[in-house]
Write a structure and sequence with these properties.
Two copies of one chain form a homodimer.
Chain A (H helix, E strand, L loop, with lengths): L12 H8 L14 E2 L10 E2 L13 E6 L3 H10 L5 E7 L3 H11 L2 E3 L2 H6 L5 E4 L6 H10 L3 E5 L6 H14 L3 E4 L6 H12 L5 E9 L29 H12 L2 E9 L11 E8 L4 E7 L6 E8 L2 E6 L4 E6 L6 E2 L7 H15 L7 H20 L3 E2 L3
Parallel strand pairs in A: 3-4, 3-6, 4-5, 6-7, 7-8, 9-12
Antiparallel strand pairs in A: 1-2, 9-13, 10-11, 10-17, 11-12, 13-14, 14-15, 15-16
Helix pairs in contact in A: 5-6, 6-10, 8-10
Chain lengths: 390, 390
């Protein structure tokens, strides 16, 4: 919606959120655009699928610093430039050369350390894309310095760390947003709407796979932080599978219990698993499966829901959604609008900083994903079912 | 091949099997038709994908009795009539009305009991489609009476029963064939060939789901034997999932360990689970997933292989196979010949009875599937990984 509705007169997101709690249809807005992310009224700012208020000239851009300038740090900085309401004004990374190059490309200042970023009065917020294990400490440090935080998934590797980071942001009164952008894919938004409408009936099973191509796995060298077992437990879960965990819980509610099987089948020279399978028992009933791997011939991202009234297939990275209703063999394509989930999540972050509202995926939602991750890691190690921490 | 190659001069299946052990190309036969089901030379008669010798007028039809005349008993009898070399001459079931109706439709004699069938000198072989828990005892009884045995999957519910039944047939010198016909689907034969050729590279993951439509689940009443927990452990595994277990082991070799999660999500009034997820660790490396359920909106049968050089999708009950090679986004359709797996397995059974050769899925292969089933049931009950019995 960003950029396409600039000329429309739209109520502020805050007032929209208030008026939509428990109400799915608003005069002047097509009802299908709106769904609520949780039980009605349970989450502040948990609007999903609703258009954001457009960025207007009146809103001062939020000045952010990139903490971490690797592949995803660059992706976020490029997306931030697309009318999100964020302005990248600084960056930092361990390597002076790397941060200088990033600063040149993105027209910002290179700072020598996180401390320097947090001490910089121009910086209002940070975009953290550093190794997983340091996320929590960096979030706490940023919050203590009064900086708003956008941090990449996984939020943390343990529930204890995730709670500590969430609490630090709450105490400091800063916005905390976690980069689970894939729930924003058009297919996932449409799936959520279909579920809310009851179009799928009772869901018996959910299945999906989120895997990387083997060409990427050449980066998993002993020198790469991502190949360290401490950073990457349960194979590709921290990098890829965690996305589906967020989407699954977004669609079907909390996962109560998991079983996991994780091995190294193909890779050599590194300790990281490359093929991981997970079973998930949802509190609401369904039995789920999530597969993740580093070594598929090509990238894999699919998600399937098997309901009693219809089955649905999200394909092509959430750009295509097929639906087969009971008694019909053909699959119908569900019309989807084009969305850029990364641009959308960054625009939401900017808006939350300015409005003081909460993002859709904040500390609480991201901690629920970390809890599933931690249970998966424990199950894969112990070969038994593990309850997800609540 | 049956019925289409009557005019061709073809060596007997026995001589073909001998000449093909370890040899994939035979003069006059396209090499792609032939693959070996196990390590070369490891299994007697383990030819797969090879054409059967045609039924000739010289071969006397094998006179079989249907033991069990339910849905699958009827399906087998109808298929048997399609030039398989079997002649259904008798039937039996618990209900006099049901067996009389079957006898009328299929033009055979209705006999009052299994004992009567086994005492009947005209009957050379039995087609067993009775409740799972009685398969083993009936196979042993048939073997003791010198009757050849074709028995539906699951062969048995325990490895002990499966071994007992296998040994009885071996001692009696009768043919034992088990109805795992789905490995004969065109897509599975082609997948096996692609794997043998190394076209997929190293396989990291296999995923599939084999589930029934919810309309069928209306048959799962307390009065139906299939709804008894003792007959149907681990939900739809015994009815549907066991097919994929056979196909998985046919494609990737033995499963070493499983984890399973099985629940009742939708059904009420019966004790049977309706949603089951299973993780499988293959001895050769890959991590597998199998989902099975009674309550999907429509029937589900898919199977996906994720290899390092290519990924493959078997769809439409094995009638469509798509392949995506590394570095290419489009999926190519693999050309498949039309096959009728049930007709083919029955024709093979007739040929084995007359030739004294072993069928592709005999007691040993079927016992390996029962071993996986038994481990799945134990894992679902205990919530932990279970090694598959060898």
């Amino acid at each position: 919606m960003i950029g396409t509705s600039q000329s429309m007169r739209i109520p502020s997101r805050t007032s929209l959120a208030k008026s939509l709690i428990g109400v799915l249809s608003v005069a002047g807005w097509p009802a299908r655009l709106f769904t609520i992310a949780g039980p009605a009224g349970s989450r502040r700012g948990a609007l999903t699928g609703a258009p954001f208020a457009p960025i207007t000239a009146a809103m001062e851009p939020v000045r952010v610093a990139a903490v971490g300038v690797g592949l995803w740090g660059k992706t976020l900085a490029s997306a931030a430039a697309k009318d999100t309401g964020l302005a990248v004004v600084a960056c930092t990374s361990r390597s002076a050369d790397t941060r200088a190059e990033f600063a040149r490309v993105h027209g910002c200042r290179a700072l020598p350390s996180l401390d320097a970023v947090l001490a910089d009065p121009e910086v209002e917020a940070v975009l953290i894309t550093t190794p997983h294990s340091v996320h929590a400490a960096q979030v706490v440090a940023a919050a203590s310095a009064g900086k708003h935080v956008f941090v990449d998934k996984p939020f943390a590797l343990t529930v204890a760390d995730a709670r500590r980071a969430t609490e630090a942001c709450r105490r400091a009164g800063v916005v905390l947003a976690v980069g689970h952008q894939r729930r924003r894919q058009a297919a996932n938004r449409a799936l959520r709407r279909l579920l809310d409408e009851g179009a799928l009936g009772r869901v018996a099973q959910i299945e999906g796979n989120m895997s990387g191509e083997i060409a990427f796995s050449s980066r998993l060298t002993p020198a790469a932080w991502r190949a360290a077992p401490a950073e990457t437990p349960a194979g590709a879960m921290t990098n890829l599978g965690i996305h589906h965990v967020d989407t699954y819980q977004y669609l079907l509610g909390p996962v109560a219990r998991v079983m996991a099987l994780s091995r190294r089948v193909v890779l050599t020279g590194v300790e990281v698993d490359d093929a991981t399978g997970i079973l998930l028992e949802f509190a609401a009933g369904p039995v789920g499966y999530l597969g993740t791997s580093w070594v598929h011939a090509s990238r894999t991202s699919y998600l399937t829901l098997h309901g009693t009234d219809a089955q649905a297939w999200s394909e092509a990275d959430g750009a295509r959604l097929l639906l087969a209703r009971r008694g019909r063999t053909e699959r119908e394509a569900v019309p989807l609008a084009a969305v850029d989930p990364v641009v959308e999540e960054l625009a939401e972050f900017a808006r939350c900083v300015r409005d003081g509202t909460a993002p859709e995926v904040g500390g609480e939602q991201a901690t629920a994903n970390v809890a599933v991750l931690e249970a998966i890691v424990e199950s894969a190690r112990g070969g038994r079912a593990v309850d997800v921490a609540r």
